[in-house]
Amino acid sequence: MSKHDPKIMCFSCSFGWGYLSDKEDIAKKVKNWVPVVCSGKVDSTHIITAFKEGADGVLILGCPEGDCHFQDGNYQTGKKVLILKKVLESYGVEPERLKMQMSIDPEGKTIPDLVKNFAAEIEKLGPVQVRPLREKAVAG
Amino acid sequence: MADKPKVAIYWLTACGGCDEAIVDLNEAVLQVADAVDIVLWPVAMDFKYSEIKKMKKNEITLSIIHGSVRNSEQKEMAEVLREKSQIVLAFGSCSCFGGTPGLANFRTKEDIFNWVYQDSPTVVNPNKNRPQAKSKVGDKTLTLPEFFDHVYALDQVIDVDYYLPGCPPPPDLIANAVFAVVEGKLPPRGSTLAPDKPLCDSCPRNATKPLKFDITEIKRPHEVEIDSETCFLAKGVLCMGPATRSGCGETCLRVNTPCRGCFGPVEGVDDMGSKFLSALASLLKAEKNEDVENVVATVCDPAGYFYRFTQPTSILGQQKL
């Protein structure tokens, strides 16, 4: 048994992920799973709040590129995630803790595994810590 | 004189710009001085803290406090003023959200001390002296306030009744706030004494805002020719207008300078930086992930830019003292 069991928050788009699944079954396997109407609905404030509340990693499952039910929600969130990674770094949160995957799985069978694999990656980083950067102040 | 409401004006970690803003009321400052009895204003008049400490509870009608809290002396004075005042107004961005001094929270106290007292090229400190809260000189002990590990906004240290943001707040809002207190016409406690809408709403450049933004490159203001009418974001210059509260009088925009966000988040938003980040992301045009990464790479310090005035009250940065 590992010493640290990472808490993973998973948002998934209901149009691409698990709409044919038994949602209760997935919810049992994935503790913090939030199906949303579109990955574009995931705001950077939600992600930041998840980290504040103790999530060690946040995984966003969106539809394949160019395949958003609502035009381009997945594309918009993809951009948000990339910028947010830079901001998280300044707060001492490793950017690897935030991940977006664009694919499709109507039966949602892969969701628990994806979360598990992501948790294994996060486990190496240890528990999330929001802290000031430790390196020396930069000139200028 | 005895019937006039008593007003205290005090600074914590502040630059003095907020005091300057009060003086900038010009003729109105005379009206203010007529209407109230100023009992404390360290930057302008000579008062003794001991006199304030001797006052009765709630004797001061209004305390206008600007600046964030970084050391034990500031905490002590904030607490004294809270006890003696009926109303505490957090005045200016530092007091409301931590302000630019709050950016220090991205670094450790140790790093800051290393830089300021040792590593900075203009410092000569062969004995590696550092300020100490207590130091012995002969048989005397000298004391300095304790420097905290974190910069706090005022409401993270004491209860605050009203907020007036701005770096500094504009004279019209200051006069409105002071006369609202004098006349007893105050909004519900906890209100911000500024409009609720975002700056873009009142921006004179709003008319030139394109229907669709396609930013492929972030520019700094000196890299583009800025005219007095075009939306900054349309030119690729970062402007915090979409996520910032209006009420400042658009003074920066009128002199061809993009908004830096000193008025803080709009009503109902806690984390200004993340809201601006979301807005900015939607304005970027990028075919591939690398395109976004390249664009973001041109912003030297995204967190510092997005949270320039609000780091201590941001979701990840906030702490209570």
Assigned CATH class of the largest domain in chain B: Alpha Beta
Summarize the helix and strand pattern of chain A as letters: EHEHEHEH
Query: What is the overall number of helices of chain B?
Result: 12
End-to-end CA span of chain B: 37 Å
Q: pLDDT average of chain A, as an integer?
A: 90
Estimate the global geometry of chain A from the Cα principal axes: globular
Query: Uncertain regions of chain B: pLDDT < 50 for 5+ in a row?
Result: none
Q: Helical proportion of chain A?
A: 25-40%
* Record field, number of beta strands of chain A: 4
Radius of gyration of chain B: 22 Å
How big a fraction of the residues of chain B is strand? 5-15%
Number of helices of chain A: 4
Instruction: Give the oligomeric state.
Output: heterodimer
Instruction: Evaluate the radius of gyration of chain A.
Output: 16 Å
**Count of individual domains of chain B:** 3
Domain count of chain A: the total is 1
Number of strands of chain B: 9
